[in-house]
Amino acid sequence: MNKRQFLALLKLGLIQSNPQITQRFRAKGKYGPALIKSLVLQNTLFPLLLVVVYGGIFLSQDLYRYPGQFNGLFLVLIGISLSQGITLIYNTFFDNNDFDHYKTLPLSIDMVIFSKSFITIFTIIVYLLPCFIAFLNYGLNAGTNIVLTLLLSLLFWLFLIILLFSLALLLLFGLSLIPAFKQKLKQIAKTMMVITSLFILLAIMLNTYQTASLSAKPYFFIQPFLNVLKQPFSKLSLLSLGIILAVIVILVLLTRIKIYPLLTQNDLNQATKQTKKALTNSTNAKHIFIRYQMRLIGESSLLFQIFSMTFIMPIVLSFSMVNLIALFNNLDQYFGLFLLLGVLITSLVVTPNSLPAILVSLERQNFPFLFTTPLSKKMYLNLKLKFILAVQLGANAVLLLFICFIAKLNLLSALCFLIGGLWFTIPTCMHYLFKDYRFPFFEWSDYLQLVTRGQSNGKLFLMMIVKWIVAIILVVALVLTSSIFGTFWPNLLVSIAVIVFLSGYSLAKVQQWRTIR
């Protein structure tokens, strides 16, 4: 293998793996070695931070005594790895499909394929490194020989890497062979990203829940690994090892013999180059508007940024609220508290990083261009508001209902919780959309830059923590007051205060919205 050629292909694959980040660095004047250096740092710093955080969590626990702690953390890491694998494979193999160009060059196609695969595999390796640490932790605490534990941990780590890489490949390449899906591969990749994001969300919830339950048992698909690490020479362990090795061999052969040859087929190379069908004349203006708005917010990279910045932390923090709720007696008597908590949860979700706060800026120069036509600005913004309200209310309703289910709230408490959260969603969406209309940011080069608008993530995180501390103080204060004066009157006063606040805030935002001409 020509090392210089392989290194050049790796650099090209790195540039192709995340076009938006590459565009952002180029906008800053970075080209050549400086661009590659920035991309390497961008693609390794966050995974290494993840390794430090999750590896530290695994190292700090006795996983042999509490093997149930594997469940949530493993699922989070697997979900993130699969999500990154799908994204990188789509970007490098499909969206930037350039195999026809390589055929005219004195390069081995196998080398091209391997260089593209290496980018994805390296990312998966880094994200799954905490799993290796976890296997090592379990084997050592189980008393297994240290050399044997190290070898088995490396084998299981290798198995996870091959499994997730092959799974991402099979999903995308398999669907590309189905005529109904071939022309919609980009939309399918986005859908997979959304599904894996939901998987990560559920895994985070599960991890938060099971961290408090030290008696939790490991899942059935994790148990064979632990059996081998605990008793490596038992009949069951040897059988498990044989199955794992067989699966590794089958996946490698399937990928090498069945998947990679498809890359040289012209039909597959053209799958992502087809143009979209034009809208028919019968498509009315409302449908065009909805499709346009859905396209604006439909990019998987944007959805992942919004999801990670506005939903993950509130979900994690809400479990501490659930633990507090478990201490309450007669939940229906705390109706004022749940009305307030609904407002507080929504304030953590609808933020300057949420969709309402960037919906105008997403259009870039299309937005001012629209109003060079006879289109009414007020009518257009009203349609935009209705659209984002439907999206944000739906997302918040799902989150609030999930919390109600986990916290096992009764009907009255759940109703107050939902009313507070959904009511506060409406004027808050109006506030952030109006602010984005008045102060748009059209010069962004990638979604991260747009979502943060130059703000420090640390500052935003600190604001979220402060909000949550205030929420806990209010909960404790109300509970203490209720223990002194009874639950009804303090909760009634809190309810009145919350309703007055929501009514005044809503009225103010409606009046502000009416100033649009």
TrEMBL record:
Domain of life of the organism encoding this protein: Bacteria
Transmembrane portions of the chain: 34-60, 72-93, 113-136, 156-181, 193-212, 232-254, 302-328, 334-362, 383-406, 412-434, 460-482, 488-508
Keywords per UniProt: Membrane, Transmembrane, Transmembrane helix
Protein name: Uncharacterized protein
